[in-house]
Design a protein that fits this description.
Blueprint: E1 3-13, E2 16-27, E3 34-35, H1 38-56, H2 61-70, H3 75-81, H4 88-94, H5 101-112, H6 116-123
Antiparallel strand pairs: 1-2, 2-3
Length: 125
């Protein structure tokens, strides 16, 4: 019989296991198997993403949305400029995935360097 438990679990973010302390889960006392209910899995993912962003100094989902909106781009148009899949921007902005450090740098260049978006329009599209 599974028992309610709380402890450190790891969640993979961009290929790296990110430890999350105090994660609620069910654990089998005999074999140690861990089972997460839907809400527990969602919270584990969110906390892992938050920690990963904090640890690596990455832009937040709201920051990414702000950059895109500042230039009046749709998610699809922004993804095309960055040569990304059509749903990637949506996933970043909703917090369902985390951008890599390299793409975070590109997003910061677009935000902070005048003319960078024009350059992308000219050379990347």
């Amino acid at each position: 019989m599974m028992k309610e438990s709380r402890g450190e679990l790891a969640y993979a973010v961009n290929g790296q296991d990110v430890p999350v302390a105090g994660a609620s889960h069910l654990r089998c006392p005999q074999c140690g198997e861990v089972v997460l209910r839907h809400e527990e899995a969602r919270r584990l993912r969110e906390h892992a993403f938050e920690r990963y962003r904090r640890d690596y100094g990455l832009l937040s989902a709201a920051d990414i949305r702000s950059i895109r909106e500042r230039f009046g781009l749709t998610q699809g148009a922004f993804a095309e400029l960055l040569r990304l899949g059509s749903n990637t921007i949506s996933r970043w902005e909703s917090g369902r995935t985390v951008q890599t450090a390299a793409l975070d740098v590109l997003l910061r260049l677009i935000r902070d360097l005048p003319g960078s978006l024009d350059y992308l329009r000219e050379h990347a599209a």
